[in-house]
Automatic annotation (TrEMBL):
The protein's name: Aldehyde dehydrogenase family protein
Active site, renumbered: E238
Keyword annotations: Oxidoreductase
Transmembrane segments: none
Taxonomic lineage: Bacteria, Bacillati, Actinomycetota, Actinomycetes, Kitasatosporales
Signal peptide: none
Organism: Streptomyces rubiginosohelvolus
Family named by the database record: Belongs to the aldehyde dehydrogenase family.
Amino acid sequence: MAPYQPGPAQAAAGERFTVLDPATGEAFDEAPDQRAQELDAAVRRAHEAWRSWRSDPAARAAALLASADAVEAAEPELAPLLTREQGKPLAESSAEIARTAARLRWFAASAPEPRTIQDGRAVHSEIRWRSLGLVAAIVPWNFPLQLASAKFAPALAAGNTVVLKPSPFTPLATRLLGSVLSAALPEGVLTVLTGRDPLGALLASHPGIRHVTFTGSVPTGRAVAAGAASGLARITLELGGNDAAILLDDVDVERIADRLFWAAFRNCGQVCMAVKRVYAPARLHGRVVEALAARAKAVVVGAGLDPGTELGPLNNAAQLARVERYTARALADGAKAAAGGHRLDRPGWFHAPTVLTDVPPDSPVVTEEQFGPVLPVLPYGSVDEAVDAANATRFGLGGSVWGTDLDRAEAVAGRLECGTAWINHHAELSLAQPFAGVKESGVGVAGGPWGLYGNLSPFVVHRALEDRS
């Protein structure tokens, strides 16, 4: 990715692109296809706004609290729009908006704490904290508002200003969110830019950016990091996962089946920290497959705006094709579909909730992040074998262990090579905790005070305790 260079080759202002409804596959609205000129203008406004925004912590906290109130008040407009462009059930869209408001409130109450260094010298040394400047937030399509707030809430609380770019698959609710927040935030503090390539590349490599935070695929994350490196900007990258769930031999299959199913299939499996592989003891493997398959066959699949829908479509045609390709490859290699195994014959990007058994362990549906409603269940002979299999991946975002003996389950969880391990549940996060991956799942830390300090730079002041003149 080359450093940003403005030039006449960029598309003229005023161009637009269509947004498709994943439940129908048809266009239902448009968004501005913004390019270099708009980006440059947004960066200038953000730098101007930063001068005053960084200097008044009390005003920032009040603005973030007002922002949370505004988001909640706009839920009746935001939720249907989010469902329309993303596909998820309306209740899940409402929950995403509630989470966005909650994160704004959490960071409104957060402030960096000065720290005194005592090392025996006759010097008073104090660590203070300064904002970085302008933060670029690049957000994917699976949780557009929630992941946007995970980036801009700590950045704004730290005194930075933000330029936010949503995915071109889901630009509309984010644009509306930006409009809602504009009533609570000073001009230029948060700017939403929408557009197709190369807008993301231009934003990541813009010389005015001091911190680039990105959620998405590993290949795009590498490109973002290369672009940010051109200006030596700080990076925070969350690059997905291939989370394993290990079921121990004392697990109560029926008791945990619902939790396990939704840990894998929520948001149609389009969750970075969803369960994407299940390892079950050989003697329980059949029962686990049967329990998960029964739920997959019973779940109501439909348009997210339909009141009875429990599982919506995949977000876009390319993602549906990826899921189809991985599933077909597994079936061709000898796997069996205990449920699903195919796309649904209807308009839109629907795939049947799928539970696979007899899957070769080297199948891409096991080794890669399928990011869809497909779950392989693999048998194991010993716990050591299960842990080795769970760790045999280039990803390391999350993992979970399920069983009745909680101490034993926690000991096994401690052997997983990932950033977060859960016991008897999965993919549940507190606003106060760090969120980070190992291996190719990411760089840097988000969430909690770690997310706040990741948007700050230390400033050390030394003062002699005696006259040295």
